[in-house]
Amino acid sequence: MLTDLSHGNTPIAVVLVLGAFVGCAFSDVAQSAESGTLGDPAAEIRQAVTTYFNVSPDLLEGGKVFVTVHVRLDRAGALVGSPEVSANGGSNAQRKGLSAAALRAVVRASPFTMLPKDNYESWKEVVLHFESGDPTP
Q1: In whole angstroms, what is the distance from residue 103 CA to residue 82 CA?
Q2: Residue 6 domain-assigned?
Q3: 70, β-bridge pairs
Q4: Are residues 33 and 42 in contact, defined by beta-carbon separation less than 8 angstroms?
Q5: Tens place of pLDDT for every residue, the chain, 137 residues?
Q6: pTM of the predicted model as reported, rounded to 2 decimal places
Q7: What are residue 132's DSSP bridge partners?
């Protein structure tokens, strides 16, 4: 699972939702609205994105920021079009900086070739939630 994505003292949590929005704590197992656990595909995407998520620790100071990245994928796991990014909370500088970091991580991590081709319908749209200052490692 993910731990400190900021490479500093303040953790950032990334929550993945495949197909439809299902809230879960980052340390929990990702769940699908239809079938219970997703298992490895969600963990693989989290790991891939985490590898490329870098943010300046000063962007994590202040109010909490919630960033959502909506991604569409083709059957090969490559991005289709531009991901949609939205951010709430914190200062304007925090929202811009964390949004850019999240988008950059998703673009660099793609294509997600590890996803099972036979389950394409369950991962063709991915929603990633980034939250600064989340107390869960």
Answers
A1: 9
A2: no
A3: 84, 127
A4: no
A5: 222 333 333 344 555 544 332 222 222 223 333 333 445 677 788 889 989 988 888 888 888 999 999 999 999 999 999 999 999 999 999 999 999 999 999 999 999 999 999 999 989 998 888 888 654 33
A6: 0.70
A7: 12
Instruction: Encode the chain in three state secondary structure.
Output: CCCCCCCCCCCEEEEEEECCCCCCCCCCCCEECCCEECCHHHHHHHHHHHHHCCCCHHHHCCCCEEEEEEEEECCCCCECCCCEEEEEECCHHHHHHHHHHHHHHHHHHCCCCCCCHHHHHHHCEEEEEEEECCCCC
Give whole-number Cα distances, 92 to 37, 39, 77, 85, 100, in Å.
36, 35, 32, 14, 12
CATH number of the structural domain spanning residue 99: 3.30.1150
C-beta of residue 109 within 8 angstroms of C-beta of residue 100: no
* Count of domains forming the chain: 1
For residues 31 and 18, what is the distance between their CA atoms, to the nearest angstrom?
8
**Residue-number span of the structural domain to which 99 is assigned:** 12-132
What does the chain come to in residues? 137
